[in-house]
Write a structure and sequence with these properties.
Elements: E1 7-8, E2 14-18, E3 23-27, H1 38-44, E4 49-53, H2 70-83, E5 89-94, H3 96-107, E6 112-118, H4 126-142, H5 148-155, H6 158-163, H7 165-176, H8 180-192, E7 208-213, H9 221-230, E8 235-239, H10 246-249, H11 251-276
Parallel strand pairs: 3-4, 3-5, 5-6, 6-7, 7-8
Antiparallel strand pairs: 1-2, 2-4
Helix pairs in contact: 1-11, 2-3, 4-8
Amino acid sequence: MIRLTAELTPAGTSYLETGEGHPVVLIHGVGLNKEMWGGQIVGLAPQYRVIAYDMLGHGASPRPQPGTGLVGYAEQLRELLEHLQVPQATVIGFSMGGLVARAFALHHPEQLEGLVILNSVFNRSAEQRAGVIERTRQAAEHGPDANAEAALSRWFSREYQAANPAQIAAIRQTLASNDPQGYLTTYELFATQDMYRAEDLGSIRVPTLVATGELDPGSTPEMARQLAARIPGAQVAVLDEQRHMMPVESPRLVNQVLLDFLQQAMSQQNSIKGIVA
């Protein structure tokens, strides 16, 4: 069992780091924190240098300033990599973390070597947009755990919830313990920025994987296909019978998808560097 002690950057970002090799950064979803990545840290660390951190407004990281946009969240990642003296990394973003990963790819392309977007949103329908805006209103009025039960039902299969009540309770507590303003600032971005600089996604020139679950109601397979179509050469993976929290519910399955992609991406990048040299 890997037990890690969180550390802080000069700007206050809380992060975990383990393993050696190519750097891989993990960005969690809204309302969660770096602890969601336990299954991936164990699965990836034997081959990669794995870095997981708390987004602004989450976990032990500082709150975002009022009005902070995705640029500010991308800047947080840039500062973390600078602190760790990591010139380039593969960035894996889950849900809201996928929006941050996209923003980082657009604003700091020189620091990106590969991109994975898991269970994230793109081009919501009017109905989907109305639903997430309503959840934002509820969070503003009642706090971060305003719609926790509905969220957990969207995120996990009924079987997993029934078999893992302690873990579900812990995630519910994580949602409830979020700083209200930090959570709301982040959730408002999650609710409104699914088309953030969509017209510029064609400029992303690194190996990219967009993946989601077959049964993910908020980050649908169609969203994954549409997003991947905007990024040159991007791959799409739709995991059978998986819901939103597939990195937690099915870590071995997700890890295998990630490891296959990382191996392929590293080979591709090494080939390119060889040609350039």
